[in-house]
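User: Reviewer 2 asked us to show a designed sequence for the structure in our supplementary figure. I'm pasting the structure tokens here. Could you produce the per-position amino acids so we can include them in the response letter?
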């Protein structure tokens, strides 16, 4: 057994939490030899439900779960945390104004950022899943100034997986024959799923797939997939999100297979002209358990316009939280 990882999950009584935690207990996230100390963070009103999930986790009898703590106190939840998964967020409800939504999320992610800043383990990594994920990650990061900005990410691996799957279906190949897909921008409808550098069955994707599909239906399908799932299932994406979270944590720790990329929202260092400080999705690889933006990709006019549109939305969201004094 290697040394234990302390994992904190906010929103632990929610749907994604329920789909994720049992897979963590079975070793899918950190491997079969890494024990986990689990901190389940919830709001007061959901502590009973979270405690019920903790009882079920006991009943799995996993040798990997060293201890499980259920709390509504972010300070206790993030004490010594190595990997923080921020899933709990305030969803938009009918009649809610955008500013109210941002304010409600600011009230969640600001204090969580401060608790991470003060109490997290030295090597903490933070993955924000709760929507609006990029801007919630920005709020968290802005309240945790002592933690390097490179430690904060927003989940776009689900969009990445959706893009890979659509290409494989369209080309009639297995998903592991699809490489170098990229998701740029915001985890929203403006995101840009990019196949300009992708490889399908060893050949450039643009030679294999019709340009009209690549620039039209493909982008729409990936960007609208969340809405399509809700329309079909009557509920949002849950199990596929849990898979994407596991992929994201695992790939950072173990590395991305040679010749391939993944995508994640990262605090921009100015790469590809994305304003510094915005949490924007980029194609990335991982080295020494840290994300690295894939360098030197040529962006043609189509890609540039798509990326700029999504970045403009991220800037609007950032300006919105700034105007409300949330960052
Ligand atoms: P649920 O509503 O089932 O669960 C959310 C849980 O978070 C609830 O139990 C709630 O009590 C808890 N919570 C709320 N505020 C909290 C706080 N301050 N501290 C701790 N816990 C808190 O939603 P679920 O289906 O699990 O989805 C969670 C979030 O993931 C949503 O914001 C959703 O929009 C987002 N998603 C993000 C995706 C991505 O790719 N980035 C895809 C899937 C998903 O839509």
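Assistant: Here is a per-position design you can include in the supplement:
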């Amino acid at each position: 057994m290697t040394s234990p990882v302390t994992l904190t999950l906010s929103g632990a009584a929610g749907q994604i939490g329920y789909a994720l935690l049992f897979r963590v207990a079975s070793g899918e996230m950190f491997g079969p030899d890494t024990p986990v100390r689990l901190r389940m963070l919830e709001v007061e009103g959901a502590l009973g439900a979270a405690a019920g999930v903790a009882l079920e986790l006991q009943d799995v009898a996993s040798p990997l779960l060293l201890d499980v703590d259920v709390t509504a106190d972010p300070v206790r939840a993030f004490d010594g945390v190595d990997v923080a998964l921020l899933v709990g967020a305030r969803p938009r409800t009918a009649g809610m104004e955008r500013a109210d939504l941002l304010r409600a999320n600011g009230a969640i992610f600001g204090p969580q950022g401060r608790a991470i800043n003060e109490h997290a383990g030295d090597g903490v990594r933070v993955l924000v899943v709760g929507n609006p994920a990029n801007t919630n990650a920005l709020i968290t990061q802005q309240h945790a100034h002592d933690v390097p900005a490179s430690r904060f990410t927003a989940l776009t691996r689900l969009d990445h997986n959706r893009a890979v799957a659509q290409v494989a279906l369209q080309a009639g190949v297995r998903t592991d024959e699809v490489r170098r897909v990229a998701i740029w921008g915001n985890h929203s409808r403006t995101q840009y799923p990019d196949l300009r550098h992708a490889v399908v069955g060893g050949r450039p994707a643009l030679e294999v797939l019709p340009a009209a599909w690549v620039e039209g239906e493909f982008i729409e399908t990936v960007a609208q997939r969340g809405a399509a799932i809700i329309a079909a299932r009557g509920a949002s994406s849950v199990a596929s999100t849990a898979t994407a979270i596991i992929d994201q944590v695992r790939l950072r720790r173990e590395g991305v297979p040679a010749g391939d990329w993944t995508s994640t929202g990262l605090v921009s260092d100015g790469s590809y002209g994305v304003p510094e400080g915005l949490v924007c999705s980029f194609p990335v690889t991982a080295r020494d358990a840290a994300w690295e933006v894939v360098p030197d990709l040529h962006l043609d006019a189509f890609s540039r316009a798509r990326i700029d549109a999504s970045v403009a939305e991220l800037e609007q969201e950032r300006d919105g939280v700034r105007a409300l004094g949330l960052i």
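For the response letter, you might also mention the following. Residues 5-154 form a domain with the Rossmann fold fold (CATH 3.40.50.720). The pocket of NAX is lined by residues 10-11, 13-17, 41-43, 46, 87-89, 91, 108, 129-131, 133, 155, 158, 187, 236-238, 241 (CB under 6 Å).
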